[in-house]
Amino acid sequence: MRGIAALSYLGAAAALVSTVAAQSYNDIADIHVYGQHFFYSNNGSQFFMKGVAYQQNYSPNGSVSANITYSDPLADAKGCARDIPYLKQIFTNVIRVYAIDPTANHDDCMRQLADADIYVIADLGEPKTSIQSDDPQWDVSLYQRYTSVIDALAKYKNVIGFFAGNENVSAGNQTSAAAFVKAAVRDCKGYIASQNYRNTLGVGYATADVPTRNDLAHYFACEPDNSGNQTQIDFWGYNVYSWCGNSTYGASSYGERYDFFSDYPVPVFFAEYGCIEGVDGGATHRPFTEVEVLFGNMSDVFSGGIVYEWFMGENNYGLVSLDGDSSVSPYPDFTSLRNQLQSISPSTTQSSAYTPSNSAPSCPSTGSAWEAVASPLPPPVNAQLCQCMASSLECNVKSTDETSYGDVFDYICHANDDFCAGIAHNASTGDFGAYSGCNPKEQLAWVANQYYLGNSKSSSACDFSGMATVQKATTAGGTCQSLLDAAGTGGTGSVASPTGRGTDAGPAASSSSKGGAPGMSTPAFFEHGSAIFAVYVTIAAISMIGMVAL
Ligand SMILES: *[C@@H]1O[C@H](CO)[C@@H](O)[C@H](O)[C@H]1NC(C)=O
Ligand SMILES: *[C@@H]1O[C@H](CO)[C@@H](O)[C@H](O)[C@H]1NC(C)=O
Ligand SMILES: *[C@@H]1O[C@H](CO)[C@@H](O)[C@H](O)[C@H]1NC(C)=O
Ligand SMILES: *[C@@H]1O[C@H](CO)[C@@H](O)[C@H](O)[C@H]1NC(C)=O
Ligand SMILES: *[C@@H]1O[C@H](CO)[C@@H](O)[C@H](O)[C@H]1NC(C)=O
Ligand SMILES: *[C@@H]1O[C@H](CO)[C@@H](O)[C@H](O)[C@H]1NC(C)=O
Ligand SMILES: *[C@@H]1O[C@H](CO)[C@@H](O)[C@H](O)[C@H]1NC(C)=O
Ligand SMILES: *[C@@H]1O[C@H](CO)[C@@H](O)[C@H](O)[C@H]1NC(C)=O
Ligand SMILES: *[C@@H]1O[C@H](CO)[C@@H](O)[C@H](O)[C@H]1NC(C)=O
């Protein structure tokens, strides 16, 4: 039961907020990273995040189903107008959004937010297009999605930056996904620079509170040689639910985290916080006693945090409920949070009085607990290279049915590892083919062509049950030829990063990179041993005679 009295009080407070000076997203002071802290770029004051996760009906850690849809909170001007007065009551100066629609118009919300001095941090993925924990890739469809979100939000000066990954490493056997996320960080940073977007736009990663968290933090902040490419994150988000109810600095492990991050080279903040377990009175009664500590004596190391979350949903973390989508009803913990945030006064520093002293940590060494090498990372995704390659082939794939690709990959890679070297992507060995970032159809075409060439261009070697067909190869010239030369005849060379807009080279052939080249990290590909693979092998065995009559 939510108190009526509290509501009318809050309504009055909301009216007060509308007196702030109006400013647009063009003239709000942007936030920049310097050493371990965030600063306002206009006056060098330190910036602490008093944030809220702001996306309705969205479970960022949910399993990915092809049917998940999302609604873009920054495209909902009415929702922004409804919520901003309440967000201001809890001193919100940043919201985190998890999935935006890059084709939507965000001007209205972004103007309203700027007007209320509220900044935005946006995740780059969306449920159907993001780096998968168990089958990580960094490929054309992901690159185009991530860069299109950057394109959509770059012009708003109240955007602090982006998360190239959120909890993509959640289990001990998923550490190799970190290599693909770090490649995404590198390419997104490179993209921001290549488009001459403002250099205060940052790219970071948000981790769950998992056992590999220390290795993860070091991995993303370390700077091995990567051909001069910047691979270090700009900030580190920490999703932490360890302070429940009346916890303490010690019991919550906040103390340990403070010690761990005290020599971290980039800003750290809680990218989600607000445990609902063990709270007197239930989930909606969180006391938020951690606020005093987070913005108190932890504030020389942590840059504040983002409470999870604004909207009430199935998981019960909401601070408010909506009455018929038109009015906002805060829960009791909204009031606790407000009271806590009201009484903080973190000691701030001026950028002019601050000299960063922390240096990049060393990269974690690989072994059973940490599998991803820090260098080389997966190669820069280059859609133009993939297209040049596909037109240069003599045997190309015509089938677009990705679910049938698995058995062909299986057959070809089994026939000869070398045919698949160009699409290998093994993060623990750092073994990446030049075409490993191409979409599944292009990858399959590459290996089919390798197979065809390797079998003396016998016409039966380019059929695969009718999925492939010989084509007249286009003679590459100019840029295409130099890209193909760099990739080499076996596809194992290294190719430069793309220079144009992320979507210049045309749309990705597929937005669901799932059916394509599952775990193509030859030769261990066959050791995956999942049920799906067993099926592929069976099908392959049965249909092989018809598929390739050699
Ligand atoms: C610096 O600028 C920001 C944004 O305009 C403002 O909120 C803050 O109070 C300023 N700091 C000082 C010390 O004036
Ligand atoms: C997602 O996170 C919530 C807490 O935010 C947790 O209760 C739930 O178990 C998580 N679900 C998965 C699938 O990890
Ligand atoms: C997704 O939606 C389609 C069509 O609406 C349905 O047939 C399918 O079962 C759904 N899949 C899942 C995993 O919910
Ligand atoms: C990690 O282990 C889980 C459960 O055993 C399994 O489903 C998943 O595929 C594994 N992931 C990787 C990348 O091996
Ligand atoms: C991986 O990170 C992206 C970007 O933050 C996020 O959208 C996505 O949900 C994450 N994927 C998984 C499986 O956690
Ligand atoms: C937490 O502290 C408050 C205020 O001191 C007290 O009323 C409440 O009973 C405590 N809750 C628990 C679970 O100890
Ligand atoms: C921070 O404050 C907490 C609670 O007030 C206290 O237990 C802890 O020792 C303090 N930590 C530091 C580093 O001063
Ligand atoms: C980044 O690395 C690639 C090779 O992977 C190289 O082609 C490119 O020139 C590098 N970029 C910079 C800015 O050094
Ligand atoms: C990567 O290669 C190593 C060494 O060949 C192998 O042990 C490992 O299983 C491979 N990883 C994957 C994900 O296939």
UniProtKB/TrEMBL annotation:
Its main location: membrane. Its EC number is 2.4.1.-. One of its GO terms (cellular component) is plasma membrane. Residues 393-482 form the X8 domain. The chain crosses the membrane at residues 530-549. Residues 1-22 form the signal peptide. It is found in: Cell membrane. Keywords: Disulfide bond, Glycoprotein, GPI-anchor, Lipoprotein, Membrane, Signal, Transferase, Transmembrane, Transmembrane helix. Residues 491-515 are annotated as: Disordered. GO terms for molecular function: 1,3-beta-glucanosyltransferase activity. It holds the Pfam family X8. InterPro entries: GH, Glucanosyltransferase, X8. It is an enzyme of class 2 (transferase). Residues 494-515 have a biased composition (Low complexity). It comes from the Eukaryota. It is a lipid-anchor; GPI-anchor. Belongs to the glycosyl hydrolase 72 family. Splits internally a 1,3-beta-glucan molecule and transfers the newly generated reducing end (the donor) to the non-reducing end of another 1,3-beta-glucan molecule (the acceptor) forming a 1,3-beta linkage, resulting in the elongation of 1,3-beta-glucan chains in the cell wall. PANTHER family: 1,3-BETA-GLUCANOSYLTRANSFERASE GAS1. This is 1,3-beta-glucanosyltransferase. It comes from Polyplosphaeria fusca. The lineage of its organism: Eukaryota, Fungi, Dikarya, Ascomycota, Pezizomycotina.
